[in-house]
Amino acid sequence: MNADEGVAPAVRSILDAARSRADPDGGHVDVDPQSLNAALSAAGADGRVPVIAEVKPTSPTTKGTREDDPVELAQAMVDGGAAALSVLTEPDHFGGSPEYLERVRDAVDVPVLRKDFILREPQLDAAEADVVLLIVRFVDDLEGLLAAARERGFQVLVEAHTEAEVREAVAAGAEFVGVNNRDLAKLDVDLGTFERVADATADVTEDITLIAESGVSTPGDVRRMRAAGADALLIGSAIMNYEEGEDPAATVRENTERLTTAESRDADDAESTGGDATPEKNL
């Protein structure tokens, strides 16, 4: 597999950094995770959209870096109804760190996903988390790395961008599959990606928890992804969207609440669908 072929320069830079990063030397971690499935199901039973809210200081597609306390922001996301959290640990392009994740996980009572570019087994041991991310495009032995993650106690979110990658993830034994709406070549976002891929793989994902990733910004976007078959949503930038002078925690809480209650709102909020409401879908 040539993971670098056909990807944007920013993605190649991220991969180069991940390859060159020193492996942790503390031995295998042993994790006792909170159940992601239970957390997502509980959110749905409570009338909330199952949202994994992301603590993301920065990224190659955003401007500036958030310097606010990640623990305070994470707690605000949970207060706003997030079923689970995602915390960046990639340091060079996303401003994250294992320490951020550890502090957040100690402070909240929901599952925490470690968001990073994990390419080889020793990189699993950089931090304890409830869930880790593996990206199909960038992993040479997906089945082997899945097994190594589970041996440590991790649940695994396997990220795909295409129908073929979803099928590969399912064949490797994935229980949670994320479909990323961001194109790796131009870094453009198209919510139609999830719709097309989910429809094309419906024959193999019936028993899979399917998660829509990237580009969800409005309640209308939420309803659109849910109508297309998303069991949950991973949302970062729209939740971390606050301006200088605003109270970061209060704004993050409001942003999270607005998106986790999207299915109970009127059609007036369906900005991304030209004002047309989409059918609700409960987990």
Automatic annotation (TrEMBL):
<dbReference type="GO" id="GO:0004425">
    <property type="term" value="F:indole-3-glycerol-phosphate synthase activity"/>
</dbReference>
<keyword id="KW-0028">Amino-acid biosynthesis</keyword>
<dbReference type="Pfam" id="PF00218">
    <property type="entry name" value="IGPS"/>
</dbReference>
<dbReference type="InterPro" id="IPR013798">
    <property type="entry name" value="Indole-3-glycerol_P_synth_dom"/>
</dbReference>
<keyword id="KW-0057">Aromatic amino acid biosynthesis</keyword>
<dbReference type="GO" id="GO:0004640">
    <property type="term" value="F:phosphoribosylanthranilate isomerase activity"/>
</dbReference>
<feature type="domain" description="Indole-3-glycerol phosphate synthase">
    <location>
        <begin position="31"/>
        <end position="244"/>
    </location>
</feature>
<comment type="pathway">
    <text>Amino-acid biosynthesis; L-tryptophan biosynthesis; L-tryptophan from chorismate: step 4/5.</text>
</comment>
<dbReference type="InterPro" id="IPR011060">
    <property type="entry name" value="RibuloseP-bd_barrel"/>
</dbReference>
<feature type="region of interest" description="Disordered">
    <location>
        <begin position="245"/>
        <end position="283"/>
    </location>
</feature>
<dbReference type="GO" id="GO:0000162">
    <property type="term" value="P:L-tryptophan biosynthetic process"/>
</dbReference>
<keyword id="KW-0456">Lyase</keyword>
<dbReference type="InterPro" id="IPR045186">
    <property type="entry name" value="Indole-3-glycerol_P_synth"/>
</dbReference>
<protein>
    <recommendedName>
        <fullName>Indole-3-glycerol phosphate synthase</fullName>
        <ecNumber>4.1.1.48</ecNumber>
    </recommendedName>
</protein>
<dbReference type="InterPro" id="IPR054875">
    <property type="entry name" value="Indglycph_syn_Halo_TrpC"/>
</dbReference>
<dbReference type="InterPro" id="IPR001468">
    <property type="entry name" value="Indole-3-GlycerolPSynthase_CS"/>
</dbReference>
<comment type="similarity">
    <text>Belongs to the TrpC family.</text>
</comment>
<keyword id="KW-0210">Decarboxylase</keyword>
<keyword id="KW-0822">Tryptophan biosynthesis</keyword>
<dbReference type="InterPro" id="IPR013785">
    <property type="entry name" value="Aldolase_TIM"/>
</dbReference>
